[in-house]
Write a structure and sequence with these properties.
It is a single chain. The protein is mainly alpha-helical and 307 residues long. It has a domain of 210 residues: MetI-like fold (Orthogonal Bundle). The protein is 71% helix and 0% strand. Helix 5 crosses helix 13. It comes from Siccirubricoccus soli.
Length: 307
């Protein structure tokens, strides 16, 4: 117990936590992000219905408005969609897919970008020039365009039935591969500064290998900005996944994310069933906005010039 309470006590006494609790916007953003995370992660247990259980769907319940409207039903607090699915449950399950894709894509781009940036900054020379030119070329293209290109190539290369089984992994790869240059360039800049410091020179003198120096000595000292970029990129990754799903090239219809729900609701927006697209859109906005606000706070809190 003491081993757990000691780090917790240091965290509560830290400047980072002091900055956190002194910012009401950050506290509210953290609560909203926590609600989104818990609601999505525990959707199978917290959701009122299973929106993807075909045996429980009833087309007679389709297009029911929210519970507080005249024809609403308390069984469906936010109403139903065109197939009679409970919209609140569909949002909770859809947020699971959006968060899963966003988190995995950011982890993938972080690992790839940090590795490339660390190698480019420490090794320098031809390796640095080649890797950074590749990053510069990729930065000239919008990330969503690269994701669409990767998804299109995979769709053309694989049979339809195979693509449906790996569609989730394809989306994660497509979004992750489009974001690594930001991490790589940031880590490279920090590594260029760190590699000439005395502790790195001392490690070279005692005969430590390059990989050991990069991973054990340099890497821990360049991870600060990476955490901030990863937090900010999580919101971008969620938006990218929603955009791909809205365009019909993201996750399959059997695993609808928030972007898929918004696309479905958009077809009925003009006929008066506004709740089918408004509520998933509001959930997406709340999720991304809370993550971005947390990223902004973290960037300012870790900036020594603002202390």
């Amino acid at each position: 117990m003491a081993a757990i309470l000691a780090p917790l006590g240091r965290l509560l006494d830290s400047d980072l936590f002091y900055s956190f609790r002194r910012s009401p916007v950050t506290v509210v953003s953290a609560l909203v992000a926590l609600v989104c995370l818990v609601g999505a992660g525990l959707a199978p247990w917290l959701a009122p219905h299973d929106p993807f259980d075909l045996a429980s769907l009833n087309l007679i319940d389709a297009f029911k408005p929210p519970a507080w409207m005249a024809e609403g039903d308390a069984t469906y607090p936010l109403g139903t969609d065109d197939q009679g699915r409970d919209l609140l449950s569909a949002i909770m399950y859809g947020a699971r897919i959006s968060l899963l894709v966003g988190i995995c894509a950011v982890l993938f781009s972080t690992l790839l970008g940090v590795g490339i940036g660390l190698a480019a900054g420490y090794l320098g020379g031809t390796v640095d020039g080649l890797l950074m030119r590749i990053a510069d070329i990729q930065l000239t293209f919008p990330s969503i365009l690269i994701a669409l290109l990767v998804d299109g190539v995979v769709r053309a290369a694989l049979p339809q039935e195979v693509h449906e089984h790996i569609a989730l992994f394809v989306v994660i790869f497509a979004i992750g591969i489009s974001a690594w240059p930001q991490f790589a360039r940031t880590v490279r800049s920090s590594t260029l500064v760190e590699r000439n410091k005395e502790y790195v020179l001392a490690a070279r003198v005692i005969g430590l290998s390059r990989p050991h120096i990069m991973l054990t000595h340099v890497l821990p000292n360049v991870l600060g900005p990476v955490l901030v970029i990863a937090t900010l990129n999580l919101g971008n990754a969620i938006i990218s996944e929603a955009t791909l799903s809205f365009l019909g090239v993201g996750v399959p219809p059997t695993q609808p994310s928030l972007g898929t729900l918004i696309r479905i609701g958009n077809d009925f927006l003009g006929s008066g069933e506004w709740w089918i697209t408004i509520f998933p859109g509001a959930a997406l906005v709340a999720m991304v906005l809370s993550v971005n606000l947390l990223g902004d706070w973290l960037r300012d809190a870790l900036n020594p010039k603002l202390r």
